[in-house]
Structures are given as structure tokens and as C-alpha cells.
Amino acid sequence: MIEKEYLLGDLPSLSEELLSVAGKERIWIFQGQMGAGKTTMIKAICDHLQVVDPVSSPTFGIVNHYETAQGQTLYHFDFYRMEDPMEALDIGVEEYFHSGNYCLIEWAENLGGFIPEQFFLIKLEVLSEDKRKITYQHIDYAH
Ligand SMILES: Nc1ncnc2c1ncn2[C@@H]1O[C@H](COP(=O)(O)OP(=O)(O)OP(=O)(O)O)[C@@H](O)[C@H]1O
Known about the structure:
alpha/beta; 31% strand; seven-stranded mixed β-sheet; Rossmann fold; single chain; binds adenosine-5'-triphosphate
């Protein structure tokens, strides 16, 4: 597990680091309270992957689809408003997770039994107004 402090200005290099450490893992789970900086970090990662369309918090849909300049597809999930994990099944979450595309997930806590067995876990914490703490690690419940 890696732990470090970061400022907004560190996000471009931090995104690059995360993409490198995550390796082949395409399912990323972001944990942290409201305002911890999950959406801001996902935006930085999308910027690094050269996402063509602007990224915003998916307030109205559970999942937003993005496309990179290289034609790569990326999914951004926000399960904050989901009350029943069965809703995730309804939107085809298992197909998304098996697609091989990046799945960047906020509020995976609400997925219940549909949380994947293997993922890259990123935890964010507020240290002060402009300073955050990140811890990241690979999780594998299958082995
Ligand atoms: N080091 C930092 N990293 C990320 N965000 C920061 C940092 N310093 C200040 N901020 C500010 O904190 C806020 C983080 O909001 P953001 O929407 O990313 O949080 P969130 O975890 O996605 O919350 P929510 O669950 O409500 O969507 C932004 O306004 C951002 O500018």
C-alpha cells in the first residue's frame, strides 16, 4: 500500500503514476467522503488519457461514457444515489466490468454483492483545504 499527500497541482503527475501502478487492472474504485476529491482525480486521469469530451460528475446517470483521442472507451460510475444493488445489474454493470475498458467507480460501497473481486483501490482523505491524502493498493479477493 502506498500513501502520500498531494495538492491540486500534483494531479497530472499523480494520474500518470496511478495509471502506471494499476498496470492491467481496469477496474478502479475510489473511496472518500464528499468533497474528498474523487471526481477531481477522475477528471485528471481522463485528462491524462486524453478524453475528448469534458468530464463532469454524473449527477443524472449512474454511468457516463467517455472516449479518448485514441478511440479508447472509459466508464465513470457514480453509485451514490443507488439504493438497491439490483439497479446496477439492470444497467449491465457486469458487462461493463468485463468489457476490458477502464471502469472508474465512485461509491462502490452501494454495489453490495456486485463489487468485483479484483480491483485497484484508491482512498482519498481531506487533510486541509488544499491538501489531500491518497492511499492506493491492488485488491484481490479471489486469491
Ligand atoms: N489536493 C486536492 N485534490 C483534489 N481536490 C482538491 C484539492 N484541493 C482542493 N480541492 C477541491 O476539493 C473539491 C473536491 O471535490 P470533488 O467533487 O472532486 O470531490 P468528490 O470526492 O468527488 O465529492 P462528491 O462525492 O461530492 O462528488 C474541489 O472543489 C477541488 O477543487
